């Protein structure tokens, strides 16, 4: 059963890996950013809309020629699907360039990727835009959109290769999915590649029914279905490509898509002509001004048009409800979307919706209602329903203003209040190093307890010494002040900005996944690169960024070291880039108790120094598991006692975590023994890795101490996160 059949009908649904037991996923290289830079274009409420549309038009016109109208029609029908298709095409193009694929096959796979979801044009709006769970008939309609796409292309496409790629992209490698007459290596190479990039992009994009996965977790999902849904050799190749330096590859990709491609070349694939109009237009300064205000006020603001389609969902509305704008804009409004209830806690039916009444009567109203908050808890709000009527008396929709009256101070509000009391860096007026250390510990403790994602961005100005040597120290100070000001502008409510030291700055991102933080860091990097610096006589400057997310077993020290390691990778790879590390898993309390119960079985009197023992299974090959282990070693400052063939013994000294120090930890050292073995169930199955883990106290008298057992639990949890592993039953 596909994950996509469980909830709403986003384009990602047919692309994500399938699960027998479906579950909601939990919440870098420049290759990954090749198709994540063009994020889902929210049709309203995003100031980058006009610029992205023009850029998208340019790419699509160059790639599709006279057939660009097909893509334009898809974008008019469902903009998130069109944006997803463009990202998939860019990603597959990067991959094909790295494979040195010949020009003709490269053309075919790019065009097929751009149009692999064109069949969504034939899906009714009531299904495509439905925010709730799909019925069996609606799921069947979504499944059939691939065949509709092939039928559309049959009427105008003269290339059988392109038609085959689009037709066989949803086929499973092992043939489990019915309706296809090819399996394994008989499937077109382009279809197998598009299927992998399609699923990867679907998993790393926000949707109304779940947040985006971190990139490393998405790769782990691809490995989990290698040999079944995906070609195992191509999965390993794609994963390996994601870890390489991609500067030259990006240069070739940009040259190909923006310089070398000619519409006349693309037109050879099409047997009929279609006009392709651009729908760009100039940016509206007034519109951007008002959108900026709406995103920075305290109250949530939602605009619903006369057809009951959501056209605007500002950031405070995101924080209040937990629904991101990109996932709800252009969807049909119903009270059930936010679980709207009256003061007696009775659900408000669609026929009694205050929005409908406001549209019908044209009268304002103010009501005390209850919504489902971001953590699933009920939130009391005052909702002001305001009709939008022009000078001629025509009704254009309703504006809802949501004011939180629950009197429960949110995490973001508490952090924002603390931000005004922190000790400031005297030069840049952002928080200083000491305050950052305190806030990092609080962020980690709070987000782990509440099981919310949070991310850390470390940024370092490139070649800063050269600035001081060339322009003087006053110019260097001006640059630091300018960069700190830019960080504050990019920060959102609840974020925390600090100067870590010298030219290094840090940003703590509240309730933000690693993937979302990396996108924000990339926006900041690009903006910095094109901003003239008066102190440098109009020359711009660049910075390198390391991004990570809080994950199971983390302490403030391990999270900081992992982000710093990502920063070093960015600098070693050529600077002026964003690198992200970490899977972002946060262990639930139920899972924690299960693990503790299992571990208690090992606390036998005859095991004088043993603290914990378990067997882990990860879906990645041994070579990748070994690389992940090196990150664990670096971030935990572990001493390697033994490392040969498939065995390793590590020693970790007493924790410096403030929480453990308060428990009376006097620095007890722990040894972790690891034994790796690679398994493969059958020839086409993906290679997996099993790890036997044994944790022992260095001194036998420490074994029974409660804080030592807690440290062992945290270390094993952290090891599971780094290795992307689960505990074997």
Short description:
With 729 residues, this protein is of the alpha+beta class. 43% of the residues lie in helices and 16% in strands.
Write a structural description.
The chain has 729 residues and is α+β, with helices and mostly antiparallel strands. It folds into four domains: 3-15 and 30-262, Hypothetical protein af1432, CATH 1.10.3210.10; 285-404, PAS domain (Beta-Lactamase), CATH 3.30.450; 411-581, 2-Layer Sandwich (Alpha-Beta Plaits); 589-727, Kinase associated domain 1, KA1 (TATA-Binding Protein, 2-Layer Sandwich). The chain contains 28 helices and 16 strands. The protein has a six-stranded antiparallel beta sheet with strand order 12-13-14-15-11-16, covered by helices on one side.
Spatially, the strands of the biggest sheet line up as 12-13-14-15-11-16
CATH top level class name of the largest domain: Mainly Alpha
CATH architecture of the largest domain: Orthogonal Bundle
What's the total count of β strands? 16
The rough form would be described as: globular
What is CATH's topology name of the largest domain? Hypothetical protein af1432
CATH superfamily of the largest domain: Hypothetical protein af1432
- The figure for the number of domains is 4
Helix content: 40-55%
Arithmetic mean of pLDDT: 77
Strand content: 15-25%
From the N-terminal CA to the C-terminal CA, the straight-line distance is: 23 Å
What is the gyration radius calculated from CA atoms?
Answer: 27 Å
If helices are DSSP runs of H or I spanning 4 or more residues, what is the number of helices? 28
């Amino acid at each position: 059963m596909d994950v996509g059949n469980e909830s709403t009908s986003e384009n990602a649904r047919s692309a994500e890996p399938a699960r027998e037991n479906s579950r909601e996923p939990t919440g870098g290289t420049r290759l990954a950013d090749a198709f994540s830079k063009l994020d889902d274009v929210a049709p309203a409420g995003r100031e980058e809309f006009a610029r992205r549309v023009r850029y998208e038009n340019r790419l699509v016109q160059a790639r599709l020629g006279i057939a660009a109208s097909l893509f334009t029609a898809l974008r008019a029908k469902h903009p998130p699907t069109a944006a997803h298709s463009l990202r998939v095409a860019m990603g597959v193009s990067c991959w094909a360039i790295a494979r040195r694929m010949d020009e003709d096959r490269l053309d075919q796979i790019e065009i097929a990727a751009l149009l692999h979801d064109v069949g969504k044009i034939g899906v009714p709006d009531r299904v495509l835009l439905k925010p709730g769970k799909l019925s069996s008939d609606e799921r069947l309609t979504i499944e059939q959109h691939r065949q509709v796409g092939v039928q559309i292309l049959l009427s105008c496409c003269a290339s059988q290769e392109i038609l085959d790629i689009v037709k066989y992209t949803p086929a499973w490698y092992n043939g489990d999915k019915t309706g296809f007459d090819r399996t394994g290596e008989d499937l077109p190479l382009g279809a197998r590649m598009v299927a992998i990039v399609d699923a990867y992009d679907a998993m790393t994009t926000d949707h109304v029914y779940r947040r985006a996965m971190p990139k490393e977790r998405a790769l782990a999902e691809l490995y989990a279905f290698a040999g079944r849904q995906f070609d195992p050799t191509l999965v390993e190749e794609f994963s390996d490509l994601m870890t390489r330096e991609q500067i030259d590859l990006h240069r070739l990709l940009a040259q190909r898509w923006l310089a070398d491609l000619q519409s006349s070349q693309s037109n050879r694939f099409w047997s009929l002509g279609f006009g392709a109009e651009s729908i760009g237009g100039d940016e509206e300064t007034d519109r951007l001004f008002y959108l900026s205000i709406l995103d920075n006020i305290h109250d949530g603001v939602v605009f619903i048009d006369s057809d009951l389609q959501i056209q605007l969902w500002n950031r405070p509305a995101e924080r209040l409800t937990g629904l991101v704008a990109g996932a709800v804009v252009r969807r049909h409004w119903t009270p059930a979307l936010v679980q709207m209830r009256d003061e007696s806690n009775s659900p408000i039916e669609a026929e009694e919706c205050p929005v409908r009444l406001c549209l019908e009567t044209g009268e304002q109203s103010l009501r005390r209602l209850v919504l489902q908050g971001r953590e699933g808890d009920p939130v009391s709000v005052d909702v002001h329903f305001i009709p939008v009527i022009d000078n001629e008396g025509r009704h254009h929709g309703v504006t809802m203003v949501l004011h939180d009256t629950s009197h429960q101070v949110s995490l973001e509000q508490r952090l924002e209040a603390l931000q005004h009391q922190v000790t400031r860096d005297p030069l840049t007026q952002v928080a200083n190093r000491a305050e950052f250390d305190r806030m990092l510990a609080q962020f980690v403790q709070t987000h782990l307890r509440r099981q919310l994602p949070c991310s850390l961005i470390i940024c370092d100005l490139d070649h800063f010494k050269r600035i001081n040597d060339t322009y003087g120290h006053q110019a260097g100070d001006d640059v630091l002040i300018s960069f700190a000001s830019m960080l504050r502008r990019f920060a959102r409510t609840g974020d925390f900005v600090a100067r870590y030291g010298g030219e290094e700055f840090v940003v703590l991102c509240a309730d933000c996944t690693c993937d979302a933080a990396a996108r924000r860091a990339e926006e900041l990097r690009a903006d910095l690169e094109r901003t003239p610096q008066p102190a440098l006589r109009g020359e711009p400057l660049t910075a390198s960024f390391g991004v990570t997310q809080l994950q199971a077993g983390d302490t403030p020290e391990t999270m900081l070291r992992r982000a710093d390691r990502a920063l070093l990778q960015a600098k070693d790879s050529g600077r002026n880039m964003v690198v992200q590390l970490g899977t972002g898993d946060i262990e639930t309390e139920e899972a924690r108790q299960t693990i503790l119960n299992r571990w208690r079985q090992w606390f036998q009197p005859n095991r004088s120094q043993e603290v914990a023992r378990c067997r882990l299974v990860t879906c990645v090959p041994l070579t990748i598991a070994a690389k992940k282990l090196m990150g664990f070693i670096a971030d935990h400052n572990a001493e390697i006692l033994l490392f040969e063939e498939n065995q390793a013994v590590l020693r970790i000294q007493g924790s410096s975590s403030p929480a453990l120090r308060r428990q009376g930890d006097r620095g007890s050292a722990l040894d972790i023994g690891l034994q790796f073995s690679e398994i493969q169930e059958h020839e086409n199955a993906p290679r997996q890795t099993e790890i036997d883990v044994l944790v022992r106290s260095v001194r036998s008298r420490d074994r029974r101490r409660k804080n030592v057992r807690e440290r062992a639990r945290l270390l094993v949890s952290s090891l599971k996160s780094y290795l992307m592993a689960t505990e074997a039953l």
